[in-house]
Amino acid sequence: MARGTFITLEGGEGSGKSTLVRELTDRLTATGREVLATREPGGIPIAEAIREIILHVDNTAMDPLTEALLYAAARRQHLAEKVLPALERGAVVICDRFVDSSLAYQGYARGLGIESIWEINRFAIESRMPDLTLYLDIEPEIGLSRLEAGGRTKVDRLDLEGMDFHRMVREGYRKVAGMFPERFVTLDASVSQQDLADKAWQYLSDALARL
Ligand code: TMP
């Protein structure tokens, strides 16, 4: 069994995951721990290439099951090539999105079924689940308006989805939270970045002391 600690961050668009990854990485590094900050889909060249295919605006013909399988394939490669070796070394891995994204986006919002998506992902990750998942909960309207205000430059295929899709994603996350209460923590992401980081840090420190 790996010695490290596997932390994932989840949330809808504009929930502040990337900023929180940086903040938690800085705080953890200051304690002397080895920290690996990474993201899905991507984090390594093969998975970044799969990300390009999934999110390319031209790929509107992509079948929803193909999309789900590509996310699972990117996840598998990233886990095997980057996350597991880091955990073996005893590092703390902070990953921006993991299996819960597929459960909420593909399983629930796309309507493929949380159970079916869980099946393909369980196969892909060989049941290696996070030790702690911080879910940044925010109204989709607020999240998306933050992205606009931040002057986002790149639009991907999922950005073309309407507000109903993003509401479904949020509902999906609530269902996933109910499935995994032992590792899933819901944080109110409408508060200031500082307050969110402080709250997240409390949960992270507790988990590190416990695990
Ligand atoms: P990002 O914008 O957080 O980098 O994520 C890229 C997009 O991919 C985002 O819209 C969420 C979506 N996504 C899924 O639909 N399923 C998944 O399993 C993952 C990891 C991401």
Automatic annotation (TrEMBL):
<dbReference type="InterPro" id="IPR018094">
    <property type="entry name" value="Thymidylate_kinase"/>
</dbReference>
<dbReference type="InterPro" id="IPR039430">
    <property type="entry name" value="Thymidylate_kin-like_dom"/>
</dbReference>
<dbReference type="GO" id="GO:0006235">
    <property type="term" value="P:dTTP biosynthetic process"/>
</dbReference>
<dbReference type="GO" id="GO:0006227">
    <property type="term" value="P:dUDP biosynthetic process"/>
</dbReference>
<dbReference type="Pfam" id="PF02223">
    <property type="entry name" value="Thymidylate_kin"/>
</dbReference>
<feature type="binding site">
    <location>
        <begin position="11"/>
        <end position="18"/>
    </location>
    <ligand>
        <name>ATP</name>
    </ligand>
</feature>
<comment type="similarity">
    <text>Belongs to the thymidylate kinase family.</text>
</comment>
<keyword id="KW-0808">Transferase</keyword>
<dbReference type="InterPro" id="IPR018095">
    <property type="entry name" value="Thymidylate_kin_CS"/>
</dbReference>
<dbReference type="GO" id="GO:0004798">
    <property type="term" value="F:dTMP kinase activity"/>
</dbReference>
<feature type="domain" description="Thymidylate kinase-like">
    <location>
        <begin position="9"/>
        <end position="197"/>
    </location>
</feature>
<keyword id="KW-0545">Nucleotide biosynthesis</keyword>
<dbReference type="InterPro" id="IPR027417">
    <property type="entry name" value="P-loop_NTPase"/>
</dbReference>
<keyword id="KW-0547">Nucleotide-binding</keyword>
<protein>
    <recommendedName>
        <fullName>Thymidylate kinase</fullName>
        <ecNumber>2.7.4.9</ecNumber>
    </recommendedName>
</protein>
<dbReference type="GO" id="GO:0005829">
    <property type="term" value="C:cytosol"/>
</dbReference>
<dbReference type="GO" id="GO:0005524">
    <property type="term" value="F:ATP binding"/>
</dbReference>
<comment type="function">
    <text>Phosphorylation of dTMP to form dTDP in both de novo and salvage pathways of dTTP synthesis.</text>
</comment>
<keyword id="KW-0067">ATP-binding</keyword>
<dbReference type="GO" id="GO:0006233">
    <property type="term" value="P:dTDP biosynthetic process"/>
</dbReference>
<keyword id="KW-0418">Kinase</keyword>
